[in-house]
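Lecture 7 notes: from sequence to structure.

We start with a single chain of 180 residues. Read the sequence below before looking at the structure.
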Amino acid sequence: MIPPVLETENLVIRAFERKDLEIFTQYRSQEMVAKYQSWTNYTYQDAIEFFEGMDYSTFGTEGNWYQLAISSLDSDELVGDLAVHFIDQDQIEIGFTVAPQHQGKNVASEAVSRFLRYVFGELNKHRVVATTDADNTASYRLLEKLAFRREGHVIQNIFFKGAWGDEYQYALLRSEQKIT
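Now the structure, written as tokens:
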């Protein structure tokens, strides 16, 4: 399977390209973006290593993570990214990051909605899961807006950036998703 190219009214979800790395580095290096992410002090060299380590020829392989670019339909400029983990033949885990200048503009909602239609419609997956920091209000509100069900609140389960933190676990079943 190859990574999809999925279009929405305003966006394209596609494989990363080398031209994306400068913008990718710019938003990943910002403290407000990195706050709930695993990285700190993200550099252009980190982006190159990330890009060169991405093997899209294995897209869809169980156990693997893949990163998909979210770009503007009009300009093809990178505005964010989707992380996709093929847990097993029936389940996928997702994550999303949006560049600060594009936050609050429906980018994540539009991209994740389109990706869910692909996952449930074309791939016929059973379940999509997501985990978010309990303090990341924007992230969990988006998941709830998209009809994800909060299945758990795990208390102080992760030691993250010098402190113990809580996480919310979400899921959405194919049978709960309205595919349009």
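The longest helix spans residues 107-122. Keep this in mind for problem set 3.
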